[in-house]
C-alpha cells in the first residue's frame, strides 16, 4: 500500500490530516473514495439571461475583477465580478477558497458551474466551480462526497495523481461470476467512475461496483454462517421436533396461534433438529406475538431434551435489554412454564446479592431450566449446567461482544454450544435485513392476532390540540391510561417544543384532576422501573415521558399515546411508540402533534397504515439506513457506492453466491 503524502498529492499537511481523519490514508483509500453522482456540463451558456435558476448551469464568462477580504467572523470572502457575452455583469462569491482562486486574474475567460441565486433583482453565483475556458475536459464530471470540508472539486483534481495505480487494484468478484454477469474488470470500472466519458459509462461502472460491494458483504455473511455451523457441529443439542408435544403446549394457550406464528415456530423447531447451532433472527412487528412463539420453542426444547437417554436436559436463557422487560417476560411466561413442570426465575441488577447467588447456584446445578435476565446474565460468575437455547430480545440493543458471550457460551458440564434465536420488533425491509444479518436465517412475523384492532392515528396541528384534550379526558374518565411522549430537547435549542418535564407541568394544569407521572432517561433504572410499575398498576393516569418508553412494555389498559413534535421522529420510531397502545380489548388512538412550522406530508403515512414494514420502506427511502436504524448500533453498513435502490440486488447476489459455491 502506498501512503498519501503532501509531496505525492502536491497539497498541505492540513489536507493530509483531514484525509486521515476521514479514513483516507493510502492511494487505495483515495481510489476507493467513489463519486456519488455526476454533473453534465455539456451545454455552455454565454448569456446570464439564459440561465435556469432552478438548477446548476455552465457559463463561459470573463472575470472583470477578483478580490478577497475578511468578514467580521474572520472568514475569507472572495468575490468575482463576471461579464457575459452581452456585457451584462453578475457576481460569484466563495468562502475560504482563496488558494483555489490564486491562478485566476482579471481578464481571464473562464467557465463557471453552479446554481444561481436571484434576489432583489440581482443574479449571483454562490461558490460555483471555476476553470479556464480553454480546458476542454469531459463534459461528465464526477461529484465526490465531501470529507472533513475537503470539497468535491479537490478530489476531482487529485484523482489524476493516482490514475496509474488503478490498474493494480485486484479483482473482488470471482472471474466466473464476472464473466457470467457480463461485467467489465474492476480496473475498467474504477477508471470509468473517476474519469467518465459519458453518462452511460458512469452508470454502468456505478452499477457493477455496487454489485461488487454488496457481493463482498453477502459473501462475508454466508461464510460467517457456514463457519459458525462448522464450529458448532456436534456441539449443539439436536432436538427432534415432536408435533404431539407442540400440540400439547398450544392447547394450554387461551388463544389460537396465527398462521404466521405457526410457520415461524416450525422454522425454529426445524433449525433445532440440525446437528449445529441455530442462528436465526425473528423479526416481528409490534403486537404480532413473538414472545409466545419463543416460549413455546423453549418449552418444546426442554421437554424433548428430558426424553433423551443419557443426556443432560437443556436450559434456556432469555436476555432482555431492560429490567422491566425482563420482569415482564418472566411474569407473562412463568405460569405456562410451571404447567409443564419447568422451573424459571429471573436475574437482574436489582436483586440482592443473596438472591443473585441463589439464582446462579440453581443455574449451575441444573435446578433452573429457564432464566430470564438482563446484562446480569453476561457476568463471568454465571454458569449453566447445559445451556441449549439462547433467546436475545431486541438484539441490536446489545453490543457485539455481549451477544457473542451468550451465543458462544460453552456449558461447563457438556461443553456444548447453544442454539441462538435473536428477536427484534424493528421492522426492517427484507433486502436490508439480508444485508445487515447475512449470517443469520430470517423469520418474519407480520400477521396480527385475530381481533386485534388497528390503532386510529391522526396528525394534529397546534390549533387542534384542545379537541384532542377533550377526547383524552373522556378516555381517562372511563378508567383508561395515556402515554405522552416529548422529544429530547437540549437546553441550547430554541425550538418551541416542550420537554417531558415541562409537559408534565402543562398536563397537570390542563388535567388538574388526573394523576400525571414523569419518566425520562436521566432517572436511575430502579426509579424508572418504579414509575412504570405504578403506571401498570393504574396509579398514574397520564405518563409524560421522553423516548425511553421501551419497546415491548405491555400495559393493556393504555389506549392513547400522544407524541409532541412528531416530525422530529422517523416513521419507524413513531410506529414503535404507537405499539405501546392497542394491547388490550379497547380501541386505541395515536395523536401526532406537530409544531407550527411543520408543513410536510411524511407523517400522513402514519394515518394511512399500521404496517411497520410498509412504514420502514418509506422511512428508508426518505432518510437512508444509517439515520433510520443507526449505523453503529444496528450494524447497518456505510456503503461506499451502493445505495438503497441497489439493495434490490441482494437476493439475486445471494443466489449467485450459493450457486457459485456449489460449483467450487
TrEMBL record:
GO BP, one annotated term: DNA repair
Keywords: ATP-binding, DNA damage, DNA repair, DNA-binding, Helicase, Hydrolase, Nucleotide-binding
Superkingdom of this protein's organism: Bacteria
PROSITE patterns assigned: HELICASE_ATP_BIND_1 (PS51192), HELICASE_CTER (PS51194)
Helicase ATP-binding domain segment(s): 271-445
Pfam families assigned: DEAD (PF00270), Helicase_C (PF00271), RecG_dom3_C (PF19833), RecG_wedge (PF17191)
InterPro entries assigned to the protein according to its UniProt record, in alphabetical order: DEAD/DEAH_box_helicase_dom, Helicase_ATP-bd, Helicase_C-like, NA-bd_OB-fold, P-loop_NTPase, RecG/Mfd, RecG_dom3_C, RecG_wedge
Residue ranges constituting the Helicase C-terminal domain according to the UniProt record: 464-626
NCBIfam families: PRK10917.1-3, PRK10917.2-2
Stated name of the protein: Probable DNA 3'-5' helicase RecG
UniProt organism field: uncultured bacterium
